[in-house]
Structures are given as C-alpha cells and as structure tokens.
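ingest -> validate -> predict -> emit
validate: passed (alphabet ok, no gaps, 196 aa)
predict: started
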Amino acid sequence: MHFTRRRFFVMIAALPLLGLVPARFFYKRKELLEPTPECDDHDTPTPSQTEGPFYTPRSPERSNLREKGMKGTALVLTGQVLDTRCQPVAGALLDWWHADAAGHYDNDGYKLRGHHYTDAEGRFRLETIVPGVYTGRTRHFHVKVKGPNTPLLTTQLYFPGEPANERDYIFKPALLMSMSEEADARKASYTFVLKA
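emit:
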C-alpha cells in the first residue's frame, strides 16, 4: 500500500476512535471466556471424626427420622455433597444417627437412624429433631458419607453457639452447620467435600 501524507493524517485522526471499539473485536472468541469460578473454599475434604460407640449398621432407607409423638425441636438439614474438584456427587449415601432430645441413643432399634442418597446435583434433605446433649459431648449429628467413586467419610456435624462446643475434646469448627430459624422448624445446612 502506498503511504501518503494524507493517509498518515487520516490514521492519526482515527486513533482516538479506537477506544470506542469493543475489545472483543481485537481478540479471538476463546480468549473471551470467563475464568473458572472459585470453588468457594470447597476444595479441602471434610474432616473425618470418630464413629463413636453407638453406630448401628443396616439402618432403614429414609430421609425423615421424625416419628409420631417424638419429643424435640423439629430440624430440617439440607446441603450438598461435592468432590475436591467441586463436582456434585450424585447418588452419594448419607447414613445418619444421633441422640434423642434427652441425649439418649436407641441401641436396640432404629429410632433417629436412617440413610438416604443425594440427587443428581449432589443435594440432600434430612428431616429430624435437634439432638440433646449428654455428659462429655456437645450437641452433634453422626454421619457416614460415601460417593459411588469416593472413599468413605465418617464424621460429625455441630451446632453453632453451643456452650459445650469449646469443652468438647473432638469439636472442630470446620464441621459447624449454618443455622436459621423458621416458624415450623429450625433450618441447618452443610456442604460435604469428599476426596475425588
């Protein structure tokens, strides 16, 4: 192309207008993709904890542990099971057991014991009651979590604001549930992270 004085001045005059052109015209489409979102700190596996002396295998499959006439404050626990790559774990088994409102476990039957599975998005919902406390421990749930292709996690979940949390020798803040209050029940949530 023949470069003339006139073309030079036309180019100089056009430079301020380049700032009005969207940057996407200067890059390939693949460079415009959004970066991979953060994993919300869910890339560290959920800590394991002791099974304790009150586990009973072969619990019934159910996601509602409440029974007619059962004393205690109703609680609905929801959450999700992810792996360390932040992918939902579909079909993960959650096996729960905990004390009743007076702090006693049913070691002869399956009261406040049961298992169920996550949905396609790794989500779960458990209906139960707030467990009572007993000597030496703070308020807690026991749970085993196992994905189709992940190792078994045995752990416990804790309630925020409990006076006995600091005195409980195995309490871990990483295992605190998020809590809220509603008219009909307390609400709790927790995200489990399993090793991929």
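Helices lie at 5-18.
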